Amino acid sequence: MLLTGGLKSLLPHVLRRIIRCNRHSISNTSGMAEGYKQANIVILHKSLADDFEKFCHANNGPLPLLYRSKPGDWKCPSLSSDSDIRTDCPQYRVYEHGAFTGSVKSLKEYSEQLKDMVTFYLGCSFSFEKAIQNAGIPIRNVEQECNVSMYKTAVPCYSISTFCCNLVVTMRPIPESKLEAAVLATSELKEAHGAPIHIGDPGLLGIQDLSKPDYGDPVHLHPGDIPVFWACGVTGVEAVINCRSPLAFTHSPGCMFITDLKNDSVTVGSSSEVPQVYCISQDPLHYSMVSAEATQKIKNLENLIGIDPGDRGIIHLHRPDELLKACLTISHARSVLITTGFPTHFSYEPPEENDGPPGALAIAAMLQALEKDVAIVTDQRAMDLNKKIIDDAVQLGILKRPVPLLSYQRENADSALRFLCENGNRRRPRFDHLIAIERAGMAADGNYYNARKVNIKNLVDPIDDLFLAAQTIPGVTTTGVGDGGNELGMGKVKEAVKKHIKNGDTIACDVEADFTIVAGVSNWGGYAIACALYILSTCEIHDRYLRKAVGFPQLLKKKTWLSALPSVTKKWHSFHETHRS
């Protein structure tokens, strides 16, 4: 890439003139005209223009529309004072019936055909490079003097008529310590694709090998760099290919049209507009995004449920932000398995206490409203009891429909893996996330104890196996909700349980969950998860990140989500919340 002398800092109209005269060999425009907007180009027959414009509006993350020309108009007066779209990109691509037929430096030979064609100018991530650099973040592809890496993903765009394709993304390596700064620098530059749509493992987007981009050049990561992905205007090229128009033109990826428009300095306003970044998984590496406002609401929830009505010392078990991180992870999940049941009343029938099932149903109700798959696994001896609870919950309107009820028995060493994954294949898990709420947890000696140190192992099926097996399955995460330290998942805080909880040396659960939510009453933890999922779903920053900036905001479903929240009017009093474990 040639960035010698003043090419990097020349004004846009001078650069366009240089490109038009083909005086220099410019392989891409990354790093040029710093601070000015650049544009992807799609040129289509006028009969397709209205549908393509609708396609852009339906997928405005990758395709932010800067300008649409009239048929045969080679200029774009709102973007540049002196331009000719036939000559002002360093290179163009020609497509006939969806097939790439060659690259050209000029479209002048197609001037007659262009009279019936419309040009779309679409925002480009090159426009935000200066903002990233101003935040003290290196641009690796500029350092390495190459084009940015672009990849086709497995994420489908919202289809309009003949325009349908998967999302294309750019990848920029960002030092881990600078992730949030990169997000802040780009989030309000919506005409340059805005905030990233994915941070972490490329496999989660369906990208198999970062060293083999579909467009552009491979960009090498430095130690400590995290791959960060932004929506890319080359999505428009894929749409052109799939619509199979008799004739269409695009810019060559990386060879942009440089406008005269400066990127306005943007100041983020309210806390609802300030994005924050959290790591929610190490294997595969995955970060999520949420607004500062939503984060604070969930932290307030976490503080509320941490009140200790029994004065048992649970404050010492509390780990900050576990509710937030757990719910971010659940929000990304497609299928969730819930378990509950603590047979603390060992001399009664049924022996279950009634802390746990209401919280489990609150979580299940919200997951159903969010259109996620959800199932409950419990002890074989308690199947009839739980079926009746679920049927009653449907009748009362707490659940939209019955939740599948499962039981687990250990038959051999692979039983847990085969339960969680199709044919025991770790690459095909049935569930993305496991939640245990007020579920008896196995102690270090292999037994299960209630708070009074009574061994209740004969009443408990080894569902802990599932949480242990989940630790070996990439992409499957777990949450434990408890109020005393002897619940499944509390192994993460077992040392604190042994030190601060009565009988802790004996009763402490030894099995860890990825996230540990400690509440004064476990049901409160379940209600908090349901409320936090609602908060995340109504957070515009998180919603955009979930849908990868394609399609439309899901906020129209807010009424459905609201109706799924736990409330007194849903007759939760049918489950008395007396804590007896």
Strands, count:
20
Oligomer: single chain
> Helical region count?
18
Regions with little confidence, pLDDT below 50 for 5+ residues: 1-5, 571-581
* Biggest β-sheet strands, sense, barrel: 7 strands, antiparallel
Q: Name the shape in a single word.
A: elongated
Textual characterization of the structure:
The chain is an alpha+beta fold and 581 residues long. It contains 18 helices and 20 strands. The chain has helices at residues 12-21, 46-58, 111-114, 129-134, 140-143, 179-187, 235-243, 292-305, 322-332, 357-369, 383-395, 415-420, 464-470, 494-500, 504-507, 522-537, 540-546, 558-563, and strands at residues 36-45, 65-68, 92-96, 99-104, 117-123, 149-156, 166-175, 198-200, 215-216, 225-231, 248-251, 257-262, 275-282, 285-291, 335-341, 373-378, 405-407, 433-439, 477-482, 515-518. Strands 1, 2, 3, 4, 5, 11 and 12 form a 7-stranded antiparallel β-sheet that branches. The chain has a 7-stranded antiparallel β-sheet with strand order 9-6-7-10-8-14-13, with helices on both faces. A 6-stranded parallel β-sheet has the order 17-16-15-18-19-20, with helices on both faces. A hairpin with a 2-residue loop joins strand 3 and strand 4 (99-104). It is elongated, with a radius of gyration of 28 Å. The N and C termini lie far apart (68 Å). This is D-glutamate cyclase. Keywords: Lyase. GO terms for molecular function: D-glutamate cyclase activity. Belongs to the D-glutamate cyclase family.
